[in-house]
Amino acid sequence: MVRKANSRTDLLLEIADDELILGWRNSEWTGIAPFLEEDVAFSSIAQNEIGHARALYELVAQELGTTADQLAFDRRPDDYRCAPLVELRRLEWARTIARHYLYETADAVRIEALKTSSDPGVAGLAAKIDREEIYHRMHAELWIDRLQASDDGRRRLEEAVHELWPYALGVLDDDLRLEWSRRVTARLGFTPDEARPVTRAEHTNELQELWDEMTMVRRGAPAGTSW
Amino acid sequence: MPIFEVFRQERKGQAFQHAGSLSAADSAFAEVYAREQYGRRGESVSLWLVPRVEIHEVDQFLDELERNYHRVDGYPLKAKLKEARERAAILASGKNG
Hints:
CATH architecture of the domain at 3-54 in chain B: Roll
Distance between the termini of chain B: 81 Å
Structural class of chain B: alpha+beta
Low-confidence stretches of chain B: none
CATH superfamily of chain A: Ferritin, core subunit, four-helix bundle
Radius of gyration of chain B: 26 Å
Mean pLDDT of chain A: 93
Structural class of chain A: mainly alpha
CATH architecture of chain A: Up-down Bundle
Number of strands of chain A: 0
Largest sheet of chain A: none
Shape of chain B: elongated
Helix content of chain B: 25-40%
Strand content of chain B: 15-25%
Mean pLDDT of chain B: 89
Oligomer: heterodimer
Number of helices of chain B: 2
CATH topology of chain A: Ferritin
Largest interface: A-B, 12 and 14 residues
């Protein structure tokens, strides 16, 4: 069973960590994406994700009396609440696009739910984030349709989706997952086999490696350094 | 991959100006790429994306007989004006004297 986020802070941290870690992973394509325009677009999407993470961390930081930077960089890898789907290092385009699409669709379902939140701070930020996410979804969906338009593309996409499926199932809680799976299978045109979701409690080694790199400069700086 | 020429409008009512070009599989991808390259910093209020193959280019302008009187710059007046002023000055000094 997926652990249900039991408070506003937990839920916001889950989303912020997802956005930060996926933003980091997507930025690994900068300079080596399949062609220049895609490089610019995908890097920009990665930057937006990190921007969303920052806005979410700031909301949480106000509540916890800390700062966005401390939340993003000063926790231990095990304290992060991101879904393992975003941790995976997959520098292969079909897998990148598959993850991008599976995640963006989950994010859309989650953001829609947050927009109706009774907390005006959360609802307002969700609406703001959603306005940017529209273009992320557009980009992801165009690629999914494009890959499916050729035999080779379809084969690669299906392989990638099957590989990522258990991880993708771990992004949302039970109550939202059904809607996500309905949307995703409708566009993909196939439904992967039932699988046990890889939950947020099961971090991969890839998160540790990413964390080492992501926090290297901050950890190496003398205490009290201001950025 | 097809090439799209991008024109952008900085403010409502202004003329669109050529901003650059990009490669994209189709016009939907071109829109995504153009938004990222020419729209995300608020530098444009509108974009035109034109497939380069749709542009009717005219690039040959023959002027075999040098009919420069067709051109607005066909009559250099500077020298003539200078002569005329000098003539006028001579005439004027003749009258005064």
